[in-house]
Write a structure and sequence with these properties.
With 450 residues, the chain is α/β, with parallel strands linked by helices. Helix content is 30%, strand content 21%. It contains 14 helices and 14 strands.
Length: 450
């Protein structure tokens, strides 16, 4: 059996449309149940539920106090009887065969997590939905009404794979939204359900799908986007300014929670996940290129060239940093060692460290592969957490841009980019390596590089 979990807080009229749509499903009533979790609504949500009890296998759960959508979904999952859960929002109108597409046939070995499609209807489309019982000619939809996950599914010359995310295949967790998502109940429980620390709107579903991704060994093959599993988003008032302001603290919370570059890049910039999805696979390829490159200058050689005082507190990001940690008050992010609680894997574009935590942030080669937007973020974050930043270039490490994203080699051009804003200079240069030191300008614009 499939259990449809619907958290709701007020929005009784939207819930009416959602439950109406579930009464018209092609799947038999005995194949699914509906669990509505009322998160302490002021409106009479229970009355809406009662109106549908004759037509649905329907149960109502109510919280005495408002606890947020994460807690509401967990309460719904705890009350559910099905071995598979379909997470819906109370403002999602199901197409007549939506539930059928989320049901799993015996022996189905496809991906565990199915992302359904959601259309953002115009007023004209919404009127048609209400007249025709969520039956629409999909070809008549306006371009703005599509799901942003409706992308080409294969590269030119390659066979189409309708179950793949194409460029998103390595970052499928970024695109799972709980308005129309199904998964095994067992998997839900294995990853611990939703994190109830998320009480405001936003990112609790990303946190959930990322934990599934990690549970699956950072393999996106557990996710499948099925555009045939279709729902429509009922129009309702959104205070976007307030909602986005409330989500701002969530981004550093996510970075601190996971301390991995997956989340680090996802949260910068927070409004362009398509760009991140396209870029991250190249960063990972370059990261592996650096890991095994024989021309990479070792950390102890860099420490001598940089001339950091033993008493300086510093953050080092790179590979094989044990030698760097032997002197001074050093914190390392070592991509050459296993990821774990004591060794985050970050690139430095958004770190979890407090303002002014270090005297210096030292970046060994990884910075060279970043796109201009991410490199700018790395510099800004480095000079947030430290008084100065050292960007180290191993001169024997080069990568042809045709092989991937490429790497910075022209320090003259790089300096021309940053000197209008920061104090910047090459402070060490020999045939093996070069070191660029950056620092914030003083209030009078005449600060010195330290």
């Amino acid at each position: 059996m499939l259990s449809v979990i619907i958290p709701t807080y007020n929005q009784a009229d939207c819930l009416q449309l959602t439950l109406d749509s579930l009464t018209r499903q092609s799947a038999g009533r005995d194949s699914f149940e509906v669990v509505v979790v009322d998160d302490a609504s002021v409106q009479d949500v229970h009355a809406v539920v009662r109106r549908h009890e004759a037509d649905l296998d329907l149960r109502y759960v109510r919280h005495d106090a408002n606890r947020g959508r994460s807690a509401a979904r967990n309460s719904g999952a705890a009350a559910a009887k099905g071995d598979r859960l379909l997470l819906m929002d109370a403002d999602s109108i199901a197409a007549p065969d939506m539930v059928e597409h989320h049901l799993r046939a015996p022996g189905d070995t496809g991906p565990d997590v199915v992302y359904g499609r959601r259309i953002e209807p115009s007023w004209g489309t919404f009127a048609e939905l209400r007249r025709n019982g969520a039956v629409l000619d999909e070809h008549a939809l306006l371009p703005m009404e599509g799901d942003h996950r409706d992308l080409p599914q294969s590269t030119p010359g390659a066979p189409a794979d309708p179950g793949a995310f194409d460029v998103y295949r390595r970052t499928g967790w970024m695109f799972g939204f709980t308005h129309n998502l199904s998964l095994p109940r067992e998997l839900y429980m294995q990853v611990g359900g939703f994190d109830e620390a998320f009480v405001q709107w936003g990112y609790e579903d990303t946190d959930f799908t990322y934990r599934i991704y990690r549970h699956n060994g950072r393999d996106s093959s557990c996710f499948r986007y099925d555009p045939a599993a279709l729902c429509y988003h009922a129009p309702h008032f959104r205070d976007w300014t307030t909602e986005w302001e409330k989500t701002k603290p969530v981004l550093p919370f996510l970075v601190d929670k996971y301390r991995h570059y997956d989340i680090e890049f996802f949260t910068h910039p927070s409004d362009n996940h398509r760009r991140v999805a396209r870029t991250l696979p190249f960063y990972e390829d370059c990261r592996e290129f650096l890991r095994v490159h024989p021309g990479r200058v070792p950390a102890d050689r860099v420490r001598k060239a940089a001339g950091l005082p033993d008493a300086a507190s510093s953050l080092w990001i790179g590979f094989d940093l044990a030698a760097a940690a032997l002197a001074g008050q050093t914190t390392t992010v070592d991509h050459g060692a296993d990821f774990g609680p004591g060794n985050p894997h970050l690139f430095g574009v958004r770190t979890p460290y407090a303002d002014g935590s270090f005297d210096c942030a030292v970046h060994l080669d990884l910075w060279r592969m970043l796109t201009p937007i991410d490199l700018s973020a790395l510099i800004m974050d480095s000079l947030r957490i430290a008084d100065s930043a050292l960007l180290v270039m191993s001169k024997q490490v080069r990568r042809d841009p045709a092989d991937g994203i490429g790497m910075i080699d022209d320090l003259g051009y790089f300096l021309s980019l940053v000197t209008p804003r920061y104090e910047a200079a090459v402070t060490y240069d020999d045939e093996e390596l070069a070191v660029v030191r950056l620092a914030r300008r003083g209030a009078d614009g005449a600060g010195a590089v330290r």
